[in-house]
Design a protein that fits this description.
Length: 334
């Protein structure tokens, strides 16, 4: 129980778990007036926890695996948890490459001073604070079963105002990009499937597919941060790795299949360890083909994307001299 309590308290400081509807026992309970009564936590003969008032009347049925009191919020007084087995989580190998793993799943019901849920669902993770725009009123964000939810307090009642996550979008090559929300704050993972077959699990912060046979994903625990925190990986739908030596890779592809690829390396500043014998390059920019092979000299400054392949653009070579580049020299066919 001590280990379980420490997990609950840690999760409570960040956020926690999910269920789609309020337990029937809580929904259908009569609502005694307990505004002026102090509720106490009790344990039944089955080791489950509930709430009762000073008269011994049961206010919240003993259906929870644990209940803790909270003074952190004016909107909820108790966090009642349910052990729901396991949930998918993003883990990382020694090279910071993400993969799908599992962790314990503890669902969190937020109960008010009357022992009633303030929202009609439980959360795997949650955060509650004043509204970020007005600074007033309750604002609740939580994660449940791959979706991100937002609730706002309106006249004393929390109303769901947003639900996102697990969207599916078919691309021009017949693959489906899909997402899954793991954390309340920017915790989306993106994956790829063909029909019902999952090609890439939804563990990548960013996933781009500029060609039918090439995909760009990023290794790194904080891929949304600066380029030093991530490494671009060019792979095919079978998972074969073609390049992992750049921090950013961008392809501009025209309708006729012609394209220009640009890659950037932040050099020794990269915080993600290299692997497979792929040493990082010095800081700079290069033109590349779709496999990540370098086809130009190194530049210390260069634009990433281009609308007109027949245009000329300014850049700086590795000596710091400003030069003009004819883009047509670096146009390739896919």
């Amino acid at each position: 129980m001590k280990n379980f309590l420490s997990v609950v308290l840690a999760v409570f400081l960040l956020c926690s778990c999910s269920v789609d509807e309020t337990p029937e026992e809580t929904k259908n309970d009569p609502e005694p007036s307990v505004t002026d009564e102090k509720l106490e936590i009790f344990e039944d003969e089955n080791g489950k926890y509930g709430l009762r008032n000073e008269k011994g009347e049961i206010i919240a049925e003993p259906i929870y695996d644990y209940i803790i009191t909270s003074e952190e919020s004016e909107y909820y007084s108790f966090v009642a948890t349910v052990d729901a087995g396991t949930k998918p989580v993003i883990a990382y190998d020694e090279y910071f490459a993400p993969y799908l793993s599992e962790d314990e799943n503890i669902l969190n019901w937020l109960l008010d001073e009357n022992g009633k849920p303030i929202a009609d669902m439980a959360f795997e993770e949650f955060i509650m604070e004043n509204h970020p725009e007005t600074g007033e009123g309750g604002w609740l964000r939580g994660v449940a079963e791959g979706y991100s939810y937002r609730f706002e307090e309106r006249d004393g009642v929390f109303v769901q105002t947003q639900k996102s996550g697990r969207e599916e979008t078919e691309n021009e090559f017949g693959y489906t990009l899909f997402g899954y929300c793991y954390f309340w704050y920017s915790g989306y993972g993106h994956g790829l499937k063909f029909g019902d077959e999952v090609i890439l699990e939804p563990v990548y912060k960013t996933l781009n597919m500029p060609f039918a046979d090439r995909i760009i994903v990023y290794d790194g625990k904080y891929p949304a941060a600066g380029p030093e925190c991530r490494v671009a990986k060019i792979i095919d739908p079978e998972g074969n790795v073609y390049s992992r030596i750049f921090n950013d890779v961008t392809f501009t592809v025209k309708e006729d299949g012609s394209y220009i690829g640009v890659a950037y390396s932040c050099g020794d500043e990269c915080e993600v360890p290299p692997y497979y014998g792929m040493d990082y390059l010095p800081e700079g920019y290069w033109f590349i083909d779709k496999d990540g092979n370098i086809i130009s000299e190194r530049f210390v400054s260069l634009r990433y994307s281009f609308d007109d392949f027949d245009a000329s653009v300014k850049a700086k070579n590795e000596n710091g001299e400003e030069i003009e580049i004819n883009l047509r020299d670096y146009v390739l066919e896919s």
